[in-house]
Design brief:
The complex is a heterodimer. Chain A is an alpha+beta fold. In chain A, 21% of the residues lie in helices and 39% in strands. Chain A has a single domain, classed as OB fold (Dihydrolipoamide Acetyltransferase, E2P) (Beta Barrel). In chain B, strand 8 and strand 9 (607-613) form a beta hairpin. Classes of the chains: A alpha+beta, B alpha+beta.
């Protein structure tokens, strides 16, 4: 066998490995219901902030806990706990993507991605902002 | 109805549109004439001159568009959508360049502009290659020029025109203010996004786009080589351009990283963000292409791979443009552009050139000269080839994961990106970096033909054992000694080895001959980048830990230890060996600066101020409030400080004497609650109320809550809020403690348990201003920046060396 063939085989093997590792590491866009069924697993949950429910952030008590309620695409509302500071302008967010897993006391978010409508952006969703909790 | 608008400068738009058409037609003419010239074997200089003339027309069109757009920005012609969208009258003029390329049309123009500049250089330097190479360049320019046309062909919009009038934009057409013929008198632009008002926005895009543009030239040469069936000759002129592109594109990418680190709140210089990845991937294949070109030049091997890598690099630049501009990354990236409706066009553009490359390679493949002998495992080329392949695999892994949204689009799947992207990429790329660094270290010592084993071992052993000792020392110093850290220790060794081996090669083999040292110097730089990245990423330490004594980590893995700390104005907290004080804030324009002092304590217990940082928050109507970190740079480490939360409640500052919204507490006798400046104790209910004081009738019922309040200096105060029932109405009477800014109102009595529901009010001035901040120490990050500089120097040396061989 020629050396170039050996190299080619190794490269193809590693490339397949890369694809598999991506598939293994990749997450799923899910609803709260699905996250609840597999409570140990991390999911991406897309939803809207429930603006009428309480957004609690008391930095004097705990600067690293922010809780709010999110309605997912299926309409389920759940409490979300985020171990970080409250993102600036969170109330204005239009769409929120959470990355995290379901726990008994609510959905534990590691990352919050939010889309804010901007005043001048003709109502189109504007730039995404990402917030990452410490984990 | 026709409105005659007042004060519009319609001539400017007409001029701009004329130049757009001119640049498009010029590119068409140029491509066509150069094509005919290159196809005909007989010498026909007139087609060549026509091709040049076409390119000059195209160039003057492009310069005309740029000039017109600048003129419009400088003179605030807000009747034009692009000017309105990206500038305003308040903005400092030094950001005019940033306004120019903030939008997609402007950044396409910037890209086109660099192609024009490089095209001019090619016309005068490419000699015999001019015809075919410039045909490709002009073809690319046709596509780019079409991105600005903004015309409709059968309902499909081609390009987005920067000279569109505000009132012609569909979203604006029916807005009431446009019914006023004099609407311009009151109109100001939306302005440049404050987040982009910094010098990075002035230097990063032109560098990055020059890097993008420079991938076109090796691509054009490769296509020309395939087309004219000169499979080897194209590489000699293409090689210096490839080195040049590697250098500029690399600089552009690292500038983006530096920007993210210095001015954006990414908390590091590399976040594996899709937009960052999209420009890193073509750089990796470009580096691969440069190395296989060198192999081919020396040994005439790896021809196919050279073509593939050179062509794929340009295709990946187009793909990266597609990813960032089609809006497809919308859900997964922090800074993707929104869709301008050009994704279809970008895709056509991408597929055209991909197809062109594939077809040309397929046609010519069987004519490629096949080397008779196999490459020896002990030759330098063999290992350079392996290195190029490793880089390609690395590029593949990154682009595959980054393309998840594209995969979803094509297959209708619903895959989300990895939940921890940094971990996902690092676990793979650390090993890539290890192999690459080892190859960089070893590679130079292999001879280009055949290596003498004992000479090789002798040369390499000093660096090898030296690196083991250095790695051992560093492992101990950096406290990396644990099983989880094994990949990092291996990477530490290999990057140290890359540095020492190349340094020793420069000294002992090259004997310090600078002009031959390009590769060694660039490789030392690359090793330093890896080392700096490794140390600063793996040993970065969040020092703004919770110092209040509660260790949240003990509560379990789901309660990560807090990384944000609250700092009350004028209070001092200990943080990572420093003592920090927040002194207050000041507002300057859109920015609010927070003054934070870092003190250290010497052996005698005396405090001295080390430095002051001013992290800021931008009050940004377009993106919400944005925090910008501030960083103190030392030679060995950086201290990065970032405001993660601050109350921007101006009401509070204006009216310190007003009471803030109350909180309601339910208390049993003897219960205490904490006020911001005191402890509040509910001692019990007292029915003995002086009814005349409250104008109550004898038959009314009244109860007082006996409150005792102790302040921080242990002074005691009392308050007696009263709750009365006058016939059937409940009427509470408030009581205040003026000295402490406290007010109590009973909102409900619970007679069965003797409990009381109490509203506690505090004055705004009671609540001290505070900020929440995050501070991270990045050690060794200067190794990374120094590495960048050294790599650039090395590449310049390599280009000079290659140009001399011309």
């Amino acid at each position: 066998m020629k050396k170039s063939h050996i190299i080619a085989i190794i490269i193809i093997a590693v490339a397949i490995g890369a694809i598999l590792s991506t598939v293994a590491d990749s997450s799923t866009y899910a609803s709260f219901a699905m996250a609840e069924q597999n409570s140990g697993k991390e999911y991406h949950v897309v939803g809207k902030l429930e603006k009428d429910s309480a957004l609690v952030y008391n930095p004097q008590e705990n600067a690293n806990l922010f809780t709010f309620y999110l309605k997912d695409t299926e309409g389920t509302v759940k409490k979300v706990l985020y171990h970080g500071t409250k993102p600036q302008d969170f109330e204005r967010s239009e769409q929120v993507v959470l990355v995290g897993k379901m726990k008994t006391d609510g959905f534990q978010a590691n990352t919050i991605l939010m889309k804010c409508p901007s005043k001048y952006n003709d109502g189109k969703p504007a730039e995404m902002k990402e917030y990452k909790a410490e984990s | 109805m026709d409105i005659t608008y007042v004060g519009e400068h319609l001539w400017a738009g007409n001029t701009g549109n004329f130049f757009i058409v001119l640049s498009f037609c010029g590119a068409l003419l140029s491509a066509l004439c150069y094509f005919i010239f290159s196809q005909n074997e007989v010498d026909n200089a007139s087609w060549k001159s026509l091709g040049r003339i076409g390119f000059y027309i195209h160039a003057s069109g492009v310069l005309g568009i740029i000039g017109t757009l600048f003129y419009m920005l400088l003179n605030h012609f807000f009747e034009y959508h692009y000017v309105w969208q990206h500038s305003n009258t308040e903005m400092p003029m030094r950001y005019i360049l940033s306004c120019f390329w903030e939008g997609q049309e402007g950044s396409f123009l910037l890209w086109t502009f660099w192609h024009v500049v490089l095209g001019f250089i090619l016309i005068f330097t490419s000699k015999n290659w001019e015809g075919p190479v410039m045909s490709v360049v002009a073809l690319v320019q046709i596509f780019l020029a079409s991105m600005l046309l903004g015309i409709y062909v059968l309902d499909y919009k081609i390009g987005s025109n920067p000279f569109l009038l505000l009132r012609d934009v569909p979203d604006f057409a029916n807005l009431p203010f446009l019914q006023n013929e004099n609407y311009l008198a009151k109109l100001d632009g939306r302005g440049l996004n404050p987040l982009l008002q910094n010098y990075w926005m002035t230097i990063h895009p032109p560098t990055l786009f020059l890097g993008f543009a420079s991938t076109l030239i090796p691509f054009a040469y490769a296509i020309a080589g395939l087309w004219k069936k000169d499979f080897n000759g194209w590489m000699k002129p293409a090689l210096p351009w490839t080195f040049f592109g590697v250098m500029i594109l690399g600089t552009g990418i690292l500038m983006g990283g530096a920007w993210a680190y210095e001015a954006l709140s990414f908390g590091g210089f590399w976040a594996w963000d899709p937009v960052e990845n999209a420009s890193l991937v073509p750089w990796l294949t470009f580096v691969g292409a440069a190395h296989v070109m060198v192999i081919h030049k020396n040994k005439g091997q790896s021809l196919l791979i050279t073509f593939i890598l050179t062509i794929i690099t340009f295709i990946l630049i187009l793909y990266s443009t597609f990813l960032t501009r089609s809006g497809i990354l919308g859900d997964s990236s922090v800074h993707a552009f929104t869709d301008l409706g050009m994704s279809g066009q970008l895709l056509v553009y991408l597929l055209t050139f991909l197809l062109l490359g594939i077809v040309l390679i397929a046609i010519n493949w069987k004519h490629f000269p096949k080397p008779e002998t196999e490459e020896s495992v002990w030759s330098r080329e063999f290992w350079m080839f392996v290195g190029a392949m490793v880089l390609s695999v690395s590029a593949f892994q990154i682009i595959f994961t980054t393309s998840i949204p594209v995969i979803n689009k094509i297959f209708g799947s619903n895959i989300a990106p990895p939940t921890d992207p940094i971990q996902h990429y690092n676990s793979f790329q650390v090993w890539v970096a290890v192999i690459v660094a080892l190859l960089i270290g070893l590679g130079q010592y292999f001879k280009f033909k055949k290596t003498e084993m004992n000479v090789f071992l002798k040369n390499i052993s000093i660096s090898f054992f030296g690196s083991i000792i250095i790695t051992g020392l560093l492992t101990v110093i950096l406290d990396l000694l644990s099983v989880q850290q094994i990949p990092y220790i291996v990477l530490l060794f290999s990057s140290v080895f890359a540095i020492t081996a190349n340094t020793s090669y420069f000294i002992s083999v090259l004997k310090g001959k600078v002009k031959l040292s390009g590769a060694s110097v660039a490789h030392v730089g690359f090793g330093m980048i890896l080392l700096g990245a490794l140390i600063s990423m793996s040993k970065s330490e969040v020092i703004s830990r919770n110092t209040s004594g509660v260790d949240l980590e003990k509560l379990g893995e789901d309660f990560p230890n807090a990384e944000n700390i609250m700092l009350v104005k004028n209070d001092t907290l200990s943080m990572g060996g420093w003592f920090v004080t927040y002194n207050g804030k000041k507002k300057e324009g859109v920015n609010i600066f927070y003054e934070i002092d870092y003190f250290s304590k010497d052996a005698n217990g005396k405090y001295s101020k080390d430095f002051t940082l001013y992290p800021r928050i931008q009050v940004n109507p377009r993106m919400g409030n944005v925090a910008e970190p501030a960083t103190k740079h030392y030679l060995g480490k950086d201290i990065y400080t970032h405001i993660t939360y601050a109350e921007l409640d101006e009401e509070k500052e204006k009216n310190p004497e007003e009471y803030k919204k109350a909180r309601t507490v339910t208390l049993a006798p003897g219960d205490t609650v904490f006020g911001s400046n005191s402890i509040i104790i509910f001692e019990g209910l007292d029915k003995n109320v002086d009814k005349t004081k409250y104008n109550l009738a004898e038959k009314d019922i009244a109860v007082a809550a006996q409150m005792r309040v102790v302040d921080v200096k242990n002074n005691s105060f009392t308050a007696r809020p009263v709750y009365s029932i006058q016939s059937v109405y409940a009427v509470p009477f408030a009581d205040e403690i003026a000295e402490l800014g406290l007010k109590f109102i009973i909102s409900k009595l619970i007679p069965e348990s003797g409990k009381v529901e109490l509203e506690v009010y505090e004055k705004n001035s009671n609540l001290k201003e505070f900020i929440i901040l995050k501070a991270i120490v990045f050690p060794g990050i200067n190794i990374l920046w120094a590495g960048c500089l050294i790599m650039v120097i090395g590449t310049v040396l390599a280009i000079r060396h290659r140009l001399k061989q011309f």
